[in-house]
Amino acid sequence: MARQVPPGDFAGTSPVWLRQPDDANELIPLLWSKTARKDDDGILHVGGVAVPDLVADVNTPAYVLDEEDFRSRARAFRDGFAGYDVYYAGKAFLSVAVAKWVAEEGLCLDVCSDGELSVALRAGIDPARIGYHGNNKTPMELRRAVAAGVGRIIVDSTDEIDRLASIAAELISTGALSGPQGVMVRVTAGVEAHTHEFIATAHEDQKFGFSISSGSAFDAASRVAAAEALHLDGLHSHIGSQIFDTSGWEVAARRVLALHARIATELGHVMPEMDLGGGFGIAYTTQDDPADPADLAAQITKIVTGECSALGIAVPHLSIEPGRAIVGSSMCTVYTVGTVKQVALDGGASRTYVSVDGGMSDNIRPALYDADYSCSLVSRRSDAAPVLARVVGKHCESGDIVVKHEFLPGDIAPGDLLAVPGTGAYGRSMASNYNHALRPPVVAVRDGQARVIVRRETEDDLLASDLG
Ligand code: LLP
Question: DSSP labels for 28-44?
């Protein structure tokens, strides 16, 4: 028979970074969107909307997006990185409404697929302010992007350079394109970013970009510069995601600028721009300590300007591509608890398993990257002593974990609402229909109003492509 661990005795079952709260009702502000707060009854309000009222309308699971928080983070990057172009990385989360907010706040947009381009165009984004990524864009996708007037296409292979050059030449000859297509060359700077292997992108042995050290980045730039229908706008480096230490960007910036200078000297082509990508980390748990955009900007700009003056070159117009750092903390996911059970652990302790009505289909990140999250009971106040819990989903996989470790009130029970903060980035965008789950809605909240901006999928959606 498992020993029920007394309150306060979680040694060995709880990770060292997880502090046992004095009051499990309290939110940790760093993890939540700016307007999130709990009232005296323990009810979570976001954007002035009581979350239990909201889910009474839309059901659970549901993503709740704090519009004011999103806009204020977008402005913080725009103003912190004044003088840069800030491209919001739509892969983190994109919908027509969000694309419009991005444009209204003065940001540009980074898309990495034809589908994301469709959303951007549907939202009426000026194509000149769109950057288009991807390591294997098809001829059809490239043609659509060029014809639509996408400002910059970030090329990733010689096959693509040749493909794009011939498409642009053809569209120039028919008058569909007025001049050379703007192109950036994706380079790998050989930086080992301190993040999960699957989200680090600037080390040598992976699929993205042209290596600086092997010389292939110089060759790719030469190839673009030689193509009459293309204009070499600059070099692009993205070192990875969920990074806190600016030393990665510093090393990358030095290596990219050295190549930038070499291209000016050897090819006689001074590129007007340079992009340092995204990857700025956010706080998922108290382990994370994100920097302020203005501080990040100050550090990165100092390196770039210092390096340019050492190389004797003009500072190129700079751009960055934050995704997670804008939308990540703006969203939380609300679930309903379905079952609670105690599971015996080695040594006689037990863990409380709390099953909710979503899981790896609405947030694959714990299963894919071993990502940590936190959560809170948001439908009532509880004075029960906190217990160490694991929140799991309803899918047929033991790795279907929503929150690996969290202290929740010991009387957590079926029917309670739990909210997981920090799910805005790559939650809905990597959601799936695994086990034929219906992907949840995204509800934007602001000034006491809730608006469904992406509706819940229906059984008809699910069966629409099943031809029987
Ligand atoms: N720019 C480029 C070229 C990228 O590849 C990415 C992310 C970004 C910008 C935005 O990175 P952010 O600022 O959001 O970290 N699905 C993973 C992350 C993969 C990101 C891929 N590229 C996750 O859930 O953590």
Answer: -GGGS-TT-EE-TT-BE
At residue 3 the predicted structure's pLDDT band, cuts being 50, 70 and 90, is very low
H-helix segments, 312-448:
324-327, 365-369
d(C-alpha 105, C-alpha 261), whole Å:
33
End-to-end CA distance of the chain: 49
The question of whether 112 is a catalytic residue gets the answer no
The rounded Å distance from CA 89 to ligand 1 centre is: 7
Please name the residue that has the structure tokens 């990057």: 77
**Ligand 1 and 426: CB distance under 6 A:** yes
**Helix, strand, coil shares of the chain as percentages rounded to 5?**
30, 25, 45
Q: Which two tokens stand for residue 141?
A: 């996708």
pLDDT digits (tens, 9 = 90+) for 342-367: 998 888 788 999 999 999 999 999 99
How do the domains of the chain map onto residue ranges? 8-66+329-462, 133-322
CA distance 121 to 148: 9
CATH fold label, 8-66+329-462: Lyase, Ornithine Decarboxylase; Chain A, domain 1 (2.40.37)
Half-sphere exposure of 115 (CA within 13 A, CB side): 6
Q: Is 274 in the pocket of ligand 1 (CB under 6 A)?
A: no
Q: How is residue 301 written in tokens? A: 């700009």
Catalytic residue among 108, 332, 375, 396: 396
Question: Which fold does the domain 133-322 belong to in CATH?
Answer: TIM Barrel (3.20.20)
Which tens digit of pLDDT belongs to each residue from 190-199? 886 666 555 5
